[in-house]
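Hi W.,

Here's what went into the run:
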Amino acid sequence: MTWLVWRLHRTQLYIAAALLAAFTVLMLVTGLQMASQYHSAVIACTASHSCANLGSTLFLGSHAVGFLVIMTLGVPALFGLFWGGPLVAAEFETGTGQFAWMQSITRKRWLAVTIGWTLLAAAAWGGAVSGLVTWWSGPDNALQLDRFKPGRFDIMGIVPVGYALFAVALGVCAGALLRRTMPALAVTLGGFIVVRSVVALWLRPHYMSAVTVTHTLLSGYTPTGSSWQLAQGILNPAGQLLPNPNGAAIDGIPIGFLPSACAATGNGAAGPTPACRQALDAFHAFVTYQPASRYWAFQGIETGIFVALAAALVAVTAVVVLRRDA
Amino acid sequence: MITVQTVTDAAAAIRTSGLSKRYRRVRALSECTITVPEGRISALIGPNGAGKTTLLRLLAGLTRPTAGEVTVNGGTPRQDPAFLAGIGYLAQEIPLYRRLSAEDHIRAGAHLNPHWDGESVRERLTALTIPLDRAVGTLSGGQHAQVALALTLAKRPRLLLLDEPVAALDPLARRNFLAILADAVAAGGLTVVMSSHLVADLERVCDHIVMLAASRVQLCGDIEGLLAEHRLLVGPRKDISAIERDHQVVQVTLTPRQTTLLVRLNGPVIDPAFEAGDVSLEDLVLAYMGQDIPSAQAPLSSIGEN
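Here's what came out:
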């Protein structure tokens, strides 16, 4: 059975291997350049004591390569479309299933071997791309402290492997249910985008309860490392959230929300009166965020979600292929 | 009693009872009860849409029945390597992987079957000058069918189920293939059920017939026995109720002066006005196809085109 799987899909595998090799070369060459650029910039800024604003002054690499790296967001979907969708659908559509399933091999075994190798290939390729991107982004992550940011979190670490498994399983399942390739591909693409968006936008912030730090207006607070800031704002003495300043403001408080003691204070150069300053002390600012130390926990949870979804889809596929008439 | 049952089961390659299949509102096969003894070449005949493909797929285990029982090679069709090894099935669409060559299919078969005879496929295709190394999608329809038939035989099944296997072949290739089939059956251990519209071809090799029309079995048995049981009665135009009382009248053809009856005999025909003649397989098939169908001409014309 493995031989047939290999024979049927080897061309695609060669193409995938060639693309991965090209991507590897690109990542290695540009990644090494970026690493040395970063290294010398750190040495230079340490000498001049100006490392604090290195993140806003130093740009690493090129826009084109950076764009390509962001585009790896779509790589799992490609596995779903090219490897997952046609896997079972094409057997029904072209009738070749009637050849494969009338050999001396059960449909169960056929399915297990076929899906098994495809999932393995998707995990391997997904892991390789993600590994390269993670390594390549090392200096940039150190510079920007934003590896938790949606869009960057999704292309590094282990989550791309979970996405790849999910995309392939979704494609296979859609193909088994619809039995036609094109509709299966449409469902795969749509389903992948919807599920990924729902998880990234609505579920991910809540994997662990966020940390909220309250501080006085003047002291300020910045979470350390690559944390993920979810919300920030200013609370009045009654604990109500003030709207974002949309014009004149003092210490981030919109003019209209200033305490009465500050009524005399306009935009004059004099600044707040001592009475006003005292009244402002009753206001507080807060930051809600996921600490940088939770990065791998979040990676693990999200990967777990997508692996579980993939397993459920494979189970549905098995029931559909084994129970329904071939 | 039990012993008798076992003996008959062992001698039957196929035994179905009340086998039915519905697809939502469509009745594809109704109350099909047939027996095909081992070692026969059975012709599965019927108009388009009669349920031939459904019956073959039920026997192969690709489709599950909605009602009734089916026993093939002594067991119920199931997902089990030993059962599957005993069945060779070739679908009407002749499904092969278009981008793979015949040689690729032969090697795949070797990986997937216990009694695979890949050498026989190579020999046959070489004799037919069909290239082994070209993608089968680039072969002609007839060559494509030859590859599929050779692969199906290479599995060395005990029961071969062929859905219109010769439709794509030219007359010479057809005769050739049927001869190979007859040889394989004569060598022993093989039973064949093949559907086709080409009665003349079937007549040459088949010794058993299963006839379906409108999803029901019309006729099932040894061709020789069935031909012996039926007579064509030709006589003047007259009341036939006496004949209808004694025998089963399958088909009545009336001309202004003459009555032609195809009857299944229940004894000798006494009426001296009628002259009895032998029936051919084609007469029989056409007569039964016309039965039980509101517009009898439709299936007749569909058979006639071949």
